[in-house]
Each structure stands twice: as structure tokens, then as C-alpha cells.
From TrEMBL:
Species: Methanomassiliicoccus intestinalis (strain Issoire-Mx1)
Keywords, comma-separated and alphabetical: ATP-binding, Nucleotide-binding, Transport
Protein known as: Iron ABC transporter, ATP-binding protein
CDD domains the UniProt entry points to: ABC_Iron-Siderophores_B12_Hemin
Pfam families: ABC_tran
One term of GO molecular function: ATP binding
């Protein structure tokens, strides 16, 4: 079965008069883990928000299975695509389990089935949240919140899963666990996982494809070996780095100067 794909066609975006994204064209057709990287303020979050219809590009289109997302309702989109934002706050008091259950809304509306509850339980267990399931979502630490929001995105059973810096608040063990999980999950379920990431070594170790942004444009797009070169890192981040091979993957060592 071929699951949904996404195409970004010549997309540009500005906030007021400040141009942020310029002529971005990308296709996501393979079931794999793609990491979007680039310096602060380059437009990574803006790009994933455009893909999720949270922002409207001023030029170009985003196509979901060939249809312009402007012609698809958010509710219909949510059946195929889940967005895990970098930070969330809830004005409602709810348990962790209830927060994860919200991921089922695009499929079940407000009527919860036994299947919904089973999926919620599975995702709580996948994210090792069993001990927190009955805790108030608003009282969690930043890292715990991040794992709950990922579980909610997974409960949505998306064909395209988009995450904005999902590991930024996680300790190293949970970072490795989540990256391993996302990498395996994309292949096992045949889905596209697209995530924004700041950590170059985590990206190089786990991403099947890396999209490197620079000055609002796509600067490089390919495998870790193709994209993570000392030249690209110098050009895009303005730092000197040495790239060595660790277990067949590039590993980046930052140099003082
Ligand atoms: N709501 C907004 N209104 C005006 N400008 C904005 C808004 N949100 C972001 N920007 C600006 O757009 C540019 C891109 O921001 P964006 O958050 O997409 O970058 P980013 O690559 O995700 O950055 P970071 O790595 O710091 O998270 C930045 O210059 C930012 O200041």
C-alpha cells in the first residue's frame, strides 16, 4: 500500500515584509526519516508550519497526495498528517492519558472506542509514560511533556508525521530512544517522518535524508555523507568543524577556530 506523500512546490513565505522562505521545492515520497537542519531563524519552524497549513505561503503550494492543502480541511488533513510542535501549553486540566487520546479526534470525533483506548495505551507504553498516565498534563516537566506530545502525534496514526525539535528537552537516553524509534517506525509503518533538529550528530546518525537550510533556501539535500561536510557546515553555520567516520556515519567535531 502506498501511503500519502507531500510535495512543496516553489514555496515562499514572509512575515509582514520580512522574507523568510524563498523558492522552496521538496518532495517527500519515501518512507523514511528526514531531518531539517539550519541555523537559528533560518525558517525551519516556518516551513513545517506552512506544510501543516498553520501558515499560508505567499507564493507556491503544498500538495498532499497531489491536492493543494488549501482545498483540504484541517480535519481531513489531520487524518493523514500529524504535527508535533516544539512547545505546548494547555489551558485545560487533563490527564496525560486524556492528552494522548486527543490524537484520536480526527478519526473518532468525540466518541471514544475500545480501539482508541487500546491505541492510546500502546503509545503511552511506547513513550514509557505508564507511570505518568494519570498525572495532570500541566504539571509535567518539559521533557515529559515532549514525550506526551509525541505520543499524541503517534496516536493520530498519521501517514506523515512532522515534528519540530522533538528531542530538544530530552536527556541523552530519551533522545536516543526517540530517534531510534522514529527511524524504525518510519520504515516499519511505511510513513514519512519529517523533523526539525538542531543536533548535527544526532541528525547524522539517524536521518535517512537531511535537508540543510541557509538564508531561507535549501542549501543541501541528501544523505548524511552528502550533506554533513566540513565545507557545508562552515558555509551555513559559520563554524569550523572536522567530520570523521563513526560506525559508518559522519560525526562532527567542532573546532575552536
Ligand atoms: N510570528 C512571527 N512574526 C514575525 N516574524 C517571525 C514570526 N515567527 C518567526 N519570525 C521570524 O521568522 C524567521 C524564521 O523563524 P523560524 O522560527 O521559522 O526559524 P527557525 O529556523 O525555526 O529558528 P530556530 O532554530 O531558532 O527555532 C526569524 O527571523 C523569526 O524572527
Amino acid at each position: 500500500m502506498v501511503l500519502s506523500d507531500i510535495t512543496i512546490d516553489n514555496l515562499s513565505f514572509s512575515y509582514d515584509n520580512a522574507d523568510v522562505l524563498k523558492d522552496i521545492s521538496l518532495q517527500f515520497q519515501e518512507p523514511n526519516l528526514t531531518c531539517i537542519i539550519g541555523p537559528n531563524g533560518v525558517g525551519k519552524t516556518t516551513l513545517v508550519k506552512c506544510i501543516n497549513k498553520l501558515l499560508k505561503p505567499h507564493q507556491g503550494r503544498v500538495l498532499l497526495d497531489g491536492t493543494d492543502i488549501n482545498n483540504i480541511s484541517l480535519f481531513e488533513m489531520a487524518k493523514k498528517m500529524a504535527f508535533v510542535p516544539n512547545s505546548v501549553s494547555s489551558i485545560f486540566s487533563m490527564t496525560v492519558a486524556e492528552a494522548v487520546l486527543m490524537g484520536r479526534y480526527p478519526h473518532s470525533g468525540w466518541v471514544t472506542s475500545a480501539e482508541d483506548l487500546q491505541i492510546v495505551e500502546e503509545m503511552i507504553s511506547t513513550m514509557h509514560l505508564e507511570d505518568l498516565a494519570e498525572r495532570n498534563f500541566r504539571e509535567l516537566s518539559a521533557g515529559q511533556t515532549q514525550r506526551v506530545v509525541i505520543a499524541r502525534g503517534l496516536a493520530q496514526e498519521p501517514e506523515i508525521l512532522i515534528l519540530d525539535e522533538p528531542t530538544s528537552n530530552l536527556d541523552v537516553k530519551h533522545q536516543m530512544e526517540i530517534m531510534n524509534f522514529l527511524s524504525n517506525y518510519s520504515k516499519k509503518m511505511g510513513i514519512k517522518v519529517i523533523m526539525v533538529c538542531h543536533d548535527l550528530n544526532i541528525t547524522a546518525a539517524f536521518a535517512d535524508r537531511i535537508v540543510m537550510m541557509h538564508q531561507g533556501r535549501i542549501f543541501a539535500d541528501g544523505t548524511a555523507r552528502q550533506v554533513m561536510t566540513a565545507e557545508n557546515i562552515r558555509e551555513v553555520y559559520d563554524v569550523n568543524a572536522r567530520v570523521i567516520d563513526v560506525e559508518g556515519k559522519p560525526h562532527i567535531i567542532m573546532l575552536k577556530d
